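Aim 2 progress update. The chain analyzed this quarter is reproduced below.
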Amino acid sequence: MPRHSHGLAVRLITAGLLASICAPAMAQAASPAGSQAPDQANTIADLQRQIDELKAMVSALQTTQPAPSPGPAPFAAPAPTQPAPVSAPPAPESIPLAAATPKPKREAWYEKLRLRGYTQMRFSQIVSGDADAPAGVSRLRSIHDSAVNGDSNFTFRRMRLVLQGDLNEHVSLYFQPDFAAAVSNQSVGERREGTVSLRDMYADVFPTGDKSFRIRLGQSKVPYGWENMQSSSNRLALDRTDAINSAASGERDLGIVAYYTPPRVQAIWDRLADDGQKLFGNYGAFGFGVFNGQGLNRTETDNDVMAVALATWPFELDGLGLNGQVFEIGGSVMRNTIRPEIRTGGVSPVGFKDNRVNLHAILYPQPFGVQAEWNWGTGPEFVPATGRIEERPVDGGYVQVMAKIDQTPIGTIHPFARWQYYRGGFKAAINAPRLETEELELGLEFQIDPALEITTTYGWASRKEADERRFGQAEGQILRVQAQWNY
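Predicted structure tokens:
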């Protein structure tokens, strides 16, 4: 009830009290003298009862109104000792609005998302060797970096934006396009760069609310090979190796995969991340998925699915006297059937087995470390002697040594050296040509600032070009410098 309503009620009650007192007095003056004594006693008793009732009503009203502001009271009289307030609940409209606790505003799903990304700009130069060659002879080229050729200088290797966040406690979103992709078959076969390509688009579902277990729906990385899972923004070498990446070029496919990371493993990975180590991301200590199997952004061409499983486990070596050192070991398997693209158009009329097994091991640099992977199996490969694609063995991997030097005037420095080897088909290229790769690469990564990294590498390469119409090995030396800025 508003304050002026309480004051009005008090005034009305007071007026009624005065009227009650005056009315018996007037009646007493008009009555005969003989009956004044008993009538007067009755009147006084009745008035005292009414006064007591009115006092109780005034007291009850005063307890429900807010404290009055300073100022003269309209009615003031000596108040006798009052009885206990009447224990009646106030009317709902008399409760002050300020006493109600406002409900917290719920965030909309789009307010929970965040945007981040990174860009890589490279300078590539073939210092010496087979930058060019006659028709039918291999030139020095890389399946990962189109800028390794006789005419290139500056290129954008990657321009990534990532939109991610939790939609609620059970579902999260991850969306990553790349603005540095390239397409061919344009005007007179001219190559066009700076186009947009979908890399990741998936939802993580947490059925139990515990984020140690998740089910990933959509286009995401295929859990095969430690290096393939590692983000390009977090890798020392500029490109992945031919042997491991040949299993899943582009590293992604469309499907469903489940990941589980025990809290003990997650705690070790969190500590390594806080130390600035280059991890492979939270893809689970255990993972199992099924995918189309045709490759990144390619239409499925058969009724078969690719099945992939991965397991990895880090071990703390404090018990061996290597305080803070972590050794991680694991492996992955792939079972698939694929139809490679063929030069006459479309895909091969039959599918080829694409089955592999991978082993990996990493000793994280504190300050020195070693990383190695190897994989074996069977995959499609073009055989010049028969002029067709056949199932052939694949074999290859890499060994990398590295160091992590934190205390320098220009930030953290990561020197590294990597040797890679591969013999087998490359199913992502037309006609699945055979690759024969041996390369030694030395590099330095300078983390000048959390937002800026500079990496320079110098390599000695012997490669067969990824084209079944060219033969022989191309050899040469390659210099590359990359600037990466994170945002």
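Confidence is low (pLDDT under 50) at residues 1-6, 21-35, 69-84, 90-95. The two ends are 57 Å apart (CA to CA). These observations will guide the mutagenesis experiments scheduled for the next reporting period.
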